[in-house]
Amino acid sequence: MKYKKIVVLLLVLALTGCGTIHTVILGDDVVKTKMNQIETKCDSIPRVYSGLSYDFCYIHARPVSTHGEPPTNSPPLIFFDMVFSGVIDTVLLPYSIYKQTQDGSINVK
Q1: Is residue 55 packed enough to be buried (19+ CB in 10 Å), middle (13-18) or exposed (0-12)?
Q2: Is the pLDDT of residue 50 over 80?
Q3: Global pTM value
């Protein structure tokens, strides 16, 4: 029972920060706003494997300092999220290919 709660908690944490959720469900404006807030170096995010691309753009953003620690731009769960984003992006591949051909990449700048 205790392990079920831990697994559910980890899944909820992964889905709330999931790059695929941000790029596929929340929309282009949300992605653009978030990427500009963190001052990423990415100009656009392709829709094919957009969750992984979102995570890589997040890693290549302006480093931030929290609670007096040295500046970093990769939160501890980003690599955990990359695994889930890769799996979900693969499942959504037919849809993301269709969206890429219809709408093109997500412009960040």
Answers
A1: buried
A2: yes
A3: 0.75
